[in-house]
C-alpha cells in the first residue's frame, strides 16, 4: 500500500509574483538555494513515489529542464573539480525516478489539472502536491505522515490545518466527524466559503492522497467557482461513495503563493541552512536591533 505516483499541477501563471514569473515558472522560485518544485518532489519521493507526473503549461519548460540531465553543466563542473556542486546537480533526482510531463492546454482549474493526469495514473491510488504550499514537517515530511494514515485506513486522505475564521474564504473548508487525534471523516467540503457560511475553520492545504475514482467524478464535474473545474466539488461527490479523511499534519506550512509567505519561508529555511544559519542569524539580529533603534525616529517624523 505504497503510493507510487505523485501529481504536480504546475500550469498556473503565478500572477501574484509578476514580473518575476513573466517568463519563468512560479514553482521555480528559490527558497534559499532550491526551487519550490524541488522541495515538493523530495517530499513525494520521501513518501515512496517513483513516478512524478507534472501537469504543465506555457512558460514551464524550466521545470522540465531542472529535472533533466544537464550534460554541459556537469562536464564543466567536473572539469573544474567542483565535485560538491556536481554532486548537488546530480542528486536533484535519485536513480529509479521517472518524470512524465503532460501539457494542460487550457487553464481550467485544479480539478482539470488533476484530470489531465488520468492517462499516466491509470487505476492506481495517487498523491497530489501543490508546490505553492511549502510544508516543513519537522520530524517527518507531510506526505509521509499522510502515507501512514493511508496505510492504516486504505482510503483517500487530505491534509488540513486550522486557520483564522476570517481567512477561510481563501481555502477549501471541511466539516468533519472526528475519528482520532487530528483525524476526521469529511462530511462536507466547500470551496472558498464566506466566513459566516463556513462549516469550520479547518482548511484544505496542498496535499492529497486520492483513489482513482476521483477521475470519473472530475469528468462529470461542471465548472464551479471562477468558471473552473474545482477539485473540491469532485471530492464532495466522492464522499457520498467513499470515506475521505481529513488529516491535521504536524509541521509548519508556508503559503509561497503569497509574497509574505514566500519571504517567511526564505527566512525560516535560511535560519536552518547548514552553511548560512549562523551568519544569517547574526545578520537578522543586527538588522532587528538597528530597526528598533530607528523606529522611534521614524514614528516621530
Automatic annotation (TrEMBL):
Gene Ontology MF terms in the entry: UTP:glucose-1-phosphate uridylyltransferase activity
CDD domains: UGPase_prokaryotic
Cited InterPro entries: GalU_uridylyltTrfase_bac/arc, NTP_transferase_dom, Nucleotide-diphossugar_trans
Top-level EC class: transferase
PANTHER family (alphabetical): UTP--GLUCOSE-1-PHOSPHATE URIDYLYLTRANSFERASE
Keywords from the UniProt entry: Nucleotidyltransferase, Transferase
Record domain Nucleotidyl transferase: where: 10-269
Catalysed reactions, semicolon-separated: alpha-D-glucose 1-phosphate + UTP + H(+) = UDP-alpha-D-glucose + diphosphate
Record organism: Panacagrimonas perspica
Family stated for the protein in its record: Belongs to the UDPGP type 2 family.
Name of the protein in its database record: UTP--glucose-1-phosphate uridylyltransferase
Organism domain of life: Bacteria
Record EC number: 2.7.7.9
Function: May play a role in stationary phase survival.
Biological process annotations from GO: UDP-alpha-D-glucose metabolic process
